[in-house]
Specification:
By secondary structure, the protein is α+β, with helices and mostly antiparallel strands. It has five helices and four strands. The chain folds into two domains: 3-46, no CATH class; 59-133, Alpha-Beta Plaits, CATH 3.30.70.3460. A hairpin with a 6-residue loop joins strand 2 (91-96) and strand 3.
């Protein structure tokens, strides 16, 4: 990752232009060209420096549901349970952690009620208790790379 990549990541955290040629606008503001901005983003995704590039929706404000959930999964069943959990289209992220609760995932649903339904379905299919941890308060923490 070079200084231009850092500048691109920092700039895009502040928003993405909503216009006919947003990559061109970003390029002009950073002293790059449109093709270079697109290629840099593709490279950052391919290198796994960025895991995702796209809009973030506030599910609750759109009438949906969002929650963080966790499971305690035995090592010998981890791959099996991962496959079951990830098969749900409502699972937005799934992470393995070194902790008693070693599988953490985010559910994003079209309705708040669907959170309860998906949790029940996961419990039924896995035979494991899902620990639901809905947010009580939202915080925004910005991440900026030093140039």
């Amino acid at each position: 990752m070079d200084d231009n990549d850092r500048a691109l990541i920092n700039y895009l955290q502040g928003g993405f232009p909503l216009c006919e040629r947003p990559y061109q606008v970003v390029a002009e503001r950073l002293g790059l060209n449109e093709t270079e901005v697109i290629e840099r983003l593709q490279n950052l995704l391919e290198q796994k420096i960025l895991t995702r590039f796209g809009p973030m929706y506030h599910a609750e404000k759109l009438g949906g549901g969002l929650t963080l959930a966790a499971l305690k999964v035995s090592f010998d069943r981890f791959d099996e349970i991962t496959t079951i959990v990830n098969a749900f289209p409502e699972v937005a992220h799934n992470y393995q952690r070194e902790h008693e609760f070693n599988m953490w995932f985010v559910l994003a649903t079209e309705t708040q009620q669907r959170i309860t339904e998906v949790i029940a379905e996961i419990e039924q299919q896995t035979g494991l208790k899902v620990y639901n941890m809905p947010k009580k308060r939202e915080y925004f923490i910005g991440l900026q790379w030093e140039a």
